[in-house]
Amino acid sequence: MNFIAKQMDILHHKADWFTHIVKLSPRFLLALLIIPVLGGLIAVILPAFGWAPALNQYTIGLEGFRALWQTPGLSTMMLLSVATGLVSTLLAFVMTLLILAAFFNTAWLDYIQRILSPILVIPHAAAAIAIGFIIAPSGMLSRLISPWLSGWELSPAGIFPHDPWGISIILGLTLKELPFLLLMALGILAQPEFGKKLREQHKVALNLGYYPMTAFFKVILPNLYPLLRLPILAVLAYASASVEMPLILGPNTPPTLAVAIMHWFNDVDLTLRIKASAGALLQLILTGCILVLWLAGETAIKYSFRDKLTNGKRAYNSAFWQKTTYILTILVISFILLALIGLIMWSVAGFWRFPSVIPEQFVLSHFQSASVQMVNPLFNTLTIGIISTIFSILLTLLCLESEQLNSKPISNFTSLIIYLPLLVPSIAFLFGLVWLQQLANNSSAYISVVFSHVLFVLPYVFLSLAASYRRLDRRFSHVAASLGAKPFKVFLQIKLPQLFAPILIATALGLAISFGQYLPTLLVGGGRIATITTEAVTLANGASRRTSAVYAIIQMALPLIGFILAWLLPKLFYKSAHR
Amino acid sequence: MQSYLQIKNLQLFRQRQLLLSLNEQVNGGQILTIMGPSGSGKSSLLNWLTGTLASSFRANGEVWLNGSNISDLPTHLRHIGVLYQDALLFSHLTVGGNIAFAMPNGNKKQRLEKIDHALEQVGLTGMATRHPDSLSGGQQARVALLRMLLSKPKAILLDEPFSKLDTQLRLETRQLVFDQIQHYKLPAIMVTHDHSDAEATNGKIITLTPQGH
Q1: Does residue A99 contact residue A112 with C-beta atoms inside 8 Å?
Q2: Which intervals hold domain ABC transporter (chain B) (predicted)?
Q3: How far apart are CA A357 and CA A388, in angstroms?
């Protein structure tokens, strides 16, 4: 009797559906990320060589590449992509290091973090619109110096934005990447064990007579960089192949390679798609080369500075670098603030003559007229964001739970794959996805768009939740299990409540990522699904500044509301729990 | 000239509350021991001496080192070496690299010779190219000591430096540290919980009492 009961128990344990699902979830996650990305890549490589069933073309050949080579200005496009990607990432990286070095272990770092964090959730398109406004010939900067300094009574002719050298793109990308890299670095330094060790070692270096900035570069950076490498590569890959910023801030003749590919792909002339696929392949190679170049530069710097680490020199022009960093930080922050103020003023500006810094009249009519047109895009934005985020959160939680059930972290391979959609230029594999979708005769643009958003939301949600989940005190779930609670009950009633705040933050982040997606929405949706972001990008090129400003503000407000809720809700809940 | 470290009329406050007041001078080669339960302000005293006092504390008073007032100098210009209870060796550098990091800038060959010589003196011959994590706790403590000494400090602070070592190792390391302090005639202040450490210094012992209870 007893024996049979035991057998039943074991059988029952095996059949626990929750454990089953949990254990399968990492494989599901892998499939979900690998199949679309690799499938998309293959489906872009084949048409590039002429094999495109969707167009009834089956001849393998180099037609696409020949057409690509004959495109006027191709080398300029490539150069523009490489230069804007590399220069902006390098600038953002160097500025991140300077800020960290100058303010390490001081309260200032917290203030800078607080000012820059909201920038992180501003979609690229909105940031580009705001930056375009400030540097335009009639923008805030020239208004501030006119006419008393510049002598301009009328708006001057200027080259910004859309300058042929991509300076505006570099400015936009740098300002957007700087907060990302800085917050990534601060996140790493906030890890309890690791961060404490580094702070103590920094103190030791100070005791040994090292100037604070030198101590950072000689002691902290060698330990910090390996953990910062992947985010940097993701930034580099994104910057070299993004379309939002170059579309809004970049030149048109010729544009960057990624923008050109997008135009070819969206052209009514379907045969251009062969050329677009060849271009996507070129973009992939280009981005790959840039990543390799960065890694090579990193190794070269590491070797040439190896001896310098221990040469005993305590100061390198400390006062100069300290001051430079202070000035740079102030400039960056005031530029961002000025851009935001300008954006808000344009959205409510009535009549606004050139050199005046403030509009003559303030009106709400832009918001009123935009709100009528905005209903459908807003609905799409919110529902796509909510569905893809909830899905991503659930899958992430299951995968992290599987780590704890197996009591070992997910493999390095899986962690790398999670980054895959961030490292492969989306312009390359998204086209493939569109081809595949046409092959599969899938006509539901909406579902496809949701799915494509998951590819980009999932990595961020995973990264955001993983640290908190892994830090959970296991003893609580052990106690619960020893009290007879089944795994699902432990998960639902013990772990999830403990993770309430991190889950809300991850949700807000997921929503912000989804709200900001431009390329997936446009390409996978076949242009049929309008969101706030696609509308904002379209309006930025052509429509009135005021309408454009309204869309950019809504774009910024949506993720911000999410984060404010994520920050407020736990406080309200805990308050009521304490009563 | 005799070297000395002087604490002039120190009053240390946490928020508004007086934590400790101290007026002491330590001469070169002497060790002043500070004892007391946790919360009595021992570590805050060390932080004040190195210039890393947290913003929730406030202090009146001055530190003088060999005739100059260093109270307003930043940490890296004070020339006060600290030995913590953890060795805190830099894990991105070798053992030799850790020591070289501390030495003044100069001729590379001479520096390397000096490192080998120093390691030899403390029984770590040939360990310069090893990774710090591959060393035992006692060996790490000795490397940390060398690192601190070769940075040519003018005074030394010991923050429970032996508390993580087992008894035999503790006695040896302690003897080594105290001998070096004697040898270089450096003023030293040690914070400890351990009475045998305190007695071994043959110096003045101050016991702090927790305030405000």
Answers
A1: yes
A2: 1-212
A3: 42
With a CB cutoff of 8 Å and minimum separation 6, the contacts of A200 are B84, B86, B88
Give the start-to-end residue ranges of the domains of chain A.
31-61+364-579, 87-254+311-360
Would the CB atoms of A204 and B82 count as touching at under 8 Å? yes
| Structural domains of chain B, with CATH | 1-79+153-213 (3.40.50.300), 91-152 (no CATH)
pLDDT along chain B (213 residues), means of 10: 90 89 93 88 90 88 93 90 90 91 90 93 92 92 92 92 86 92 94 90 88 52
Q: Do B101 and A307 touch (CB under 8 A)?
A: no
CATH of domain A87-254+311-360: 1.10.3720
Contacts of B76 in chain A (CB under 8 A): 205-212, 215, 314
The token pair that represents A68 in the structure block? 């690509």
Contact B99, B135 (CB under 8 A): no
C-alpha atoms less than 13 angstroms from C-alpha of A336 in its C-beta half-sphere: 22
Question: Is the pLDDT assigned to residue A64 strictly greater than 60?
Answer: yes
The closest alpha carbon to B1, from B66, B47, B96, belongs to B66
* Residue keyed to tokens 């979708």: A437
Determine contact: A307 vs chain B, CB below 8 A.
yes
**pLDDT tens, A322-354?**
999 999 999 999 999 999 999 999 888 878 887
* Peptide bond just before A254 cis, omega within 30 deg: yes
User: Does residue A137 have a cis bond before it (omega within 30 degrees)?
Assistant: no
Q: Are A32 and A391 in contact (CB under 8 A)?
A: no
Does B52 contact A at CB distance below 8 Å? yes
**Nearest-CA distance from B83 to chain A in Å?**
9
A193 inside 8 A of chain B by CB: no
| Closest CA–CA distance from residue A49 to any residue of chain B (Å) | 48
- A314 contacts in chain B (CB < 8 Å): 76, 105
Q: Give the C-alpha separation, B188 to A169, whole Å.
A: 57
- As a whole number of angstroms, the distance between CA A371 and CA A378 comes to 9
Neighbours of A172 (CB within 10 A): 31
CA nearest to B28, candidates B188, B180, B190, B150: B188
Report d(CA A82, CA A55) in Å as an integer: 31
- State how far the Cα of B169 lies from the Cα of B64, in Å rounded to an integer: 34
Residue A540 near residue A125 (C-beta atoms within 8 A): yes
Whether the complex's predicted ipTM surpasses the cut of 0.90:
no
**Paired sense of beta strands B80-83 and B4-14, if any:** unpaired
pTM: 0.87
Size of interface A-B (CB pairs under 8 A): 78
Nearest chain A residue (CA) to B107: A311
Copy the structure tokens of residue A297. 């530069």
**What token pair was written down for A515?**
């709200």
Q: What tokens does B174 get?
A: 């302690």
Distance (Å, whole) CA A46 – CA A432? 9
Question: What DSSP designation does A492 have?
Answer: I
B86 touches chain A (CB under 8 A): yes
- Cα–Cα distances (Å) from A132 to A234, A247, A310, A518, in that order, read 24, 11, 46, 18
Half-sphere exposure at residue B105, Cβ-oriented, CA atoms within 13 angstroms? 9
Distance from CA of A222 to the nearest CA of B (A): 7
Q: Is there a contact between A314 and B76 if contact means CB atoms under 8 Å apart?
A: yes
For domain A31-61+364-579, which architecture applies?
A: Orthogonal Bundle (1.10)
Q: Are B111 and A205 a contacting pair at CB < 8 A?
A: no
B90 close contact with A: CB closer than 8 A: yes
Is the CB of A311 inside 8 Å of chain B's CB atoms? yes
- Cα(A160)–Cα(A289) distance, integer angstroms: 29
What's the rounded Cα separation, in Å, for the pair A489 and A468? Answer: 20
Q: What is the mean pLDDT of residues A547-570?
A: 91
Starting at the edge strand that comes first in sequence, how are the strands of the sheet with B205-207 ordered?
B80-83, B155-159, B188-191, B31-35, B205-207
